[in-house]
């Protein structure tokens, strides 16, 4: 395992650990998810450059577009919850309310 791949794996796991442990603010959840997606994107890009196959070259681009869609919908949810609830604390959100 190369050093770069090890560091990317550790960054993905740190993002996952932050997602599990620090669920106080909605913004911190979105940042942890973006960290995980960035690590996945870099790992897929490294895999594509190592294997030199044309069939797997589209995968990092698809992951990047999915990440952009996830970020935009996450920020839209952040704006909507901060307007309706006044804060982005996760304790104030109740999923049973309509």
TrEMBL record:
Gene3D superfamilies: 1.10.287.3510. The keyword Nucleotidyltransferase does not apply. Coiled coil: none annotated. Its main location: mitochondrion. It catalyses: a ubiquinone + NADH + 5 H(+)(in) = a ubiquinol + NAD(+) + 4 H(+)(out). It holds the Pfam family Oxidored_q2. One of its GO terms (molecular function) is oxidoreductase activity, acting on NAD(P)H. Belongs to the complex I subunit 4L family. This is NADH-ubiquinone oxidoreductase chain 4L. The lineage of its organism: Eukaryota, Metazoa, Chordata, Craniata, Vertebrata.
